[in-house]
Amino acid sequence: MTSDDFAWEVLADASADAQMLYEPLAAARALLPDTSEPERQRVVERTLRALHGAGLIVFVRGGDPPGAAFSDPERHLADEEVDELLAGPGWRTVPVGPEGTRVWLAATEAGRRTFAEDAPPEIIARRAAEGEDGGP
């Protein structure tokens, strides 16, 4: 699986449902089993930064899950806070640190639209075969 394929997987998951911050790394551990743990963490961090920077996902702090927070731009984490959070260890450890379970991410409307319109057919086919649609 390429880094681009992994980014599509993260966007699909974030389009389907809100994710706790640690979940993309958990997915990477399953999808990239032959990749070293430090490299998996770098792939996830780069992916999350790229998707956030492109406006395709948003991060919020919240409870279980913080649905209302996603629709309120004032509750979205600022870029600086996202950078600090992704650089930290709280979402990388097992057991997961508090940041891994208190911070959520979800696709923005642009992210959901991008997945629906541009996802590679092989990603859609694989997810369909596994019973995951990646859509809202």
Tell me the radius of gyration: 14 Å
Principal-axis shape: globular
Looking at the chains present, what oligomeric state does this protein adopt? single chain
Widest sheet, order of strands: 1-3-2
Mean pLDDT: 89
Structural class of the helix and strand makeup?
Answer: mainly alpha
Largest sheet: 3 strands, antiparallel
Number of E strands = 3
Provide a quick synopsis of the model.
This protein has 136 residues and is mainly α.
Give structural notes.
This protein is mainly alpha-helical and 136 residues long. The chain is built from eight helices and three strands; from the N terminus they run αβααβαααβαα. The chain is globular and about 35 Å long. The chain starts with a helix and ends in a 7-residue tail after the last helix. The mean pLDDT is 89. It has helices spanning 3-16, 23-31, 37-53, 67-70, 79-87, 98-102, 109-118, 121-129, and strands spanning 19-20, 57-61, 103-107. It is 57% helix and 9% strand. It has a three-stranded antiparallel sheet with strand order 1-3-2. The relative contact order is 0.21.
What is the fold's blueprint, element by element?
Blueprint: H1 3-16, E1 19-20, H2 23-31, H3 37-53, E2 57-61, H4 67-70, H5 79-87, H6 98-102, E3 103-107, H7 109-118, H8 121-129
Antiparallel strand pairs: 1-3, 2-3
